[in-house]
Amino acid sequence: MLRYAITDGSAASPEGHARLLEDARRWAADGVDFVQLREPSLEPGALLALATSIAKTLHTTHTKLLINSRPDIAIAANADGVHLTARPGELTPAQVRTVFAAAGATPPLVSVSCHTLAEVTRASQAAADLILFGPIFEKRIHGAVVVQGIGLEALAQASRAAATTPVLALGGLTPQTTPACLSAGAAGIAGIRIFARPSTP
Predict the structure, then answer these.
(1) Are 172 and 143 in contact (CB under 8 A)?
(2) 141-154: average pLDDT
(3) How many other CB atoms sit within 10 Å of the CB of residue 1?
(4) Rounded CA gap, 46 and 41, in Å?
(5) Which CATH superfamily is domain 2-173+183-195 in?
């Protein structure tokens, strides 16, 4: 089972930066396969500094670092790849690989967010390395459910539509619901809360 942790957007402060580095060490020690750095509130300079620190932390581990939507930051930080969203105008996997090649960087891993079967088919045909599909159960913002999930049958359809591209279930997953996602055909799980740091008493 592949495991893909997404950062929670809390790294704007020095304390948040330090906590995220601790998270990266914990994820690597736990054998998490991928970490997506998703910190939209950070300015490019701060994002690069954080990405560089995490890349150095993960350098000798199994865990790969992907930067959300910023191939330039990924290259400068020596990260392993890029995550692309489903937003209109987003780069394609081929364009990301062209940017990396032009910079003389190692070919990147590229993951893509998908919410429909058409997007899954498009990402698979575009040679994405991973597809994050959801929300399967729910999507939350600041603790409140804002989008109801599309369900396990949709996940099964997406897994078939993706052909050989691994599909990771995303959205409201828990340890209890993970087996059902795998049974539906997912190659693994992705998310923020399911990989969150343990609560302190």
Answers:
(1) no
(2) 80
(3) 12
(4) 10
(5) Aldolase class I (3.20.20.70)
